[in-house]
Amino acid sequence: MEYLLTLAADPAAWVALATLIAMEVVLGIDNLIFISILTNKLPEQQRSKARRIGISAALILRLGLLSTVALIVQLTDPIMSVLGNEFSWRDLILIAGGLFLVWKATKEIHHNVDPDPEPDIFNTAMASASLATMISQILLLDLVFSIDSIVTAVGMTEHIPIMVIAVVVAVLTMLLAADPLANFINENPTIVMLALGFLLMIGTTLIADGFGVHVPRGYIYAAMTFSALIEGLNMLSRRARKRREEMANSANS
């Protein structure tokens, strides 16, 4: 208790908390985009349930990993060397997760652009199997994003209570934003392709990070923000054109 009171009275701790919360929320965007795209493939009555399960699992994984901080730190220790490049467990996990994300995003892009896609696990006639498949895929990526999130937290502060608060706030933010974001993506088809492009970029970044090539997250999110703003302008343009066409049709009738 004395430790918590001392920590609460330390201004540096509050600065670290605010910074870490912002970082965790930003890192959670990647996770949330993936969950939103996957769950939108499910029948409507199952989507919210799948999102809650996925985000709750993310919280459990992050808090569970925080309870093993010593192990998490060891995940960054090299375990093998290939052609002069050293790899840790964290690197291998990021590479595997990045490859899965690139494969998944590519598959979804193909599914969206193919005029006659073959039936697959996302067929709503296989709703029960799809729900289980979606949740398993969400859990897999939750693990990758959780490890990345906790390694980031460990690198920013040594105080476990600060990490716990930041993680809980970030995941609660994801929980609140999940349905609105998923509905927005579902109602705007062009946003789906943009979001899949984001997932491709994030997956590539994870792979690069696993190979020791660190791409500053600021560049990634700046590109994502710029793309989102351009798409926002396109949406406004389409709505304005639609209103003009409706007004013209009303005048002609």
The number of helical segments is 9
Strand arrangement within the widest β-sheet reads 1-2
Radius of gyration: 21 Å
Helix percent band: over 70%
N-to-C series of helices and strands: HHHHEEHHHHH
Taking pLDDT < 50 over at least 5 consecutive residues as the criterion, the unreliable ranges are 120-129
Broad structural category = mainly alpha
Apparent shape: globular
Distance between the amino and carboxyl termini: 75 Å
The tally of structural domains comes to 2
Jot down its keywords.
253 residues, mainly alpha, 2 domains, two-stranded antiparallel ribbon, globular
Give an overview in words.
- Helix 2 packs antiparallel against helix 3 and helix 5 runs antiparallel to helix 8.
- The chain has nine helices and two strands; from the N terminus they run ααααββααααα.
- The chain has 253 residues and is mostly helical.
- It has two domains: 214 residues; 38 residues.
- Helices cover 81% and strands 4% of the residues.
- The protein has a two-stranded antiparallel sheet.
Quick synopsis:
This protein is mainly α. It contains nine helices and two strands.
Question: Which SSEs are present, and which pair or pack?
Answer:
Elements: H1 2-8, H2 11-39, H3 44-66, H4 69-74, E1 78-82, E2 85-88, H5 89-113, H6 127-156, H7 160-187, H8 189-210, H9 217-252
Antiparallel strand pairs: 1-2
